[in-house]
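WARN no homologs supplied; continuing
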Amino acid sequence: MKNFRKGKLSDAEIVQWLRDLRKNSYAPETDFFVTAVFRARVQGVDDYYFGGVNIENTDHRIATHAEEGCIAAMVTGLGRNAEIAEGWVMAAPQGVNAGDSDPAADTMISCCGKCRQQIAGLAGEGVKIHTITLNGRQSSTTVGAFLPDLFTFRQYIPELLASKKTDASAPSYNEVKDKMIRHGELTEEEIFAWLKEIESIVYISKVSQAIVLELDNGVYVAGAKIEEAAFLSINAAQSAVAVAVSTFGERRIRNVLVYTKGVDGCEISEDSFGTLTLSALQTLFEMAEHDEIPVRFFMEDGDIVSMTLSEATRVAPTYRKPFCKKS
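OK structure emitted
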């Protein structure tokens, strides 16, 4: 898979992967390509690697950075207990290539503040983050060094983080892959079962949301909702699009399937369904085949509410229309 590997990788393999990912970046406005690879840990196993690319949006605030693409894939594939063990980032303008004498091929580009905050939420302060140029020059820092006095769920809701460890076994390569990407025709029942397997990180809202997108190449990709303590969250649509673009490059979405549920004391009625925020819809509009692609919302009993992407903008959630009651 283009965005996921399992088994220890050498520095040379990671550098080449970062270079190869560049052609999948979606940067129609800046032509500035950013790629990242994160090594992840879950259940004591730390040889899961996830790749990500930057994905621009006409609404700049909801553009997805390469580091966010790695986080999206990591949480979708490994679940809410996944942690970042190490990271690598590479960036340069589109027309610059490895081996060029152009100064941009050897210019260090570090993680932005937004990504530093999100990385810190899923990594210990001693975790190393490496910046690598196209020509292979490298510098390294730690999460604690690039974001001192950090603020994460460890401070905000420490009792939840203390209970992250479970007795479950670490997933295999195929189990992780199948959480993110599936090929072949799938029934609505199969997609619903898949959506129910995906774990979100939702310590604040207690409203979990997962999305499966059918792409124009016939492949299905999934994404999880990932909340962050400073509200620099990644919605499920951004996660799924990040998985899609990191793996296949620019693709068009032809079908959207959504499942929302309450967790950790969030109670919902069986006949309700969770809608998509306007930022999630904006993310989908950027990559949709057209504005009237179908969006299907699963209710807890498996029934479906269907509408078009355009129609979904009229039922965006607000705090005035709460999805659940928190016990």
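The chain is about 25% helix and 25% strand.
OK
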